[in-house]
Specification:
This protein has a single domain, classed as Ferritin, core subunit, four-helix bundle (Ferritin). The protein contains 5 helices and no strands. Helix 2 packs antiparallel against helix 5 and helix 4 packs antiparallel against helix 5.
Length: 136
Amino acid sequence: MLSTMENLITQFRALQFLAHRVHNKVKGPTFGEDHEFFGELYPAYETAYDSLVERMIGLEKPLNIDKVNKAAAEMSSVAPNLTDRTSFLKILLKGEEDLCSMIAKENPKATLGTQNLLQQLCDDSEARQYQIKQRL
């Protein structure tokens, strides 16, 4: 069983995998802007993932990175044949909303520095949520 923080790390990794997949699969009349938008998402998720992993290591918290990555790969393989941009956007929006819920749950238990990191990650997520909603 993964800790709340490991679940949060898993969520960021799964969104990274999914956004990269969408970036490669998007097509149609909005290809250019969609390709660029999704291309900006997956490095943002990767950076957040890496920040949280390094924080866990730095605070000497238990972290099963292999289990995290396996779970993220499984989570991100939802609807493997999906190519509809609207459906992808809805999946990403739900993932973003879940991130903020997970952060709200973890934040009170975290150190002050980690609270700051988590709050920034939620702030970034809220900005992405707005951008995704504008594309829907």
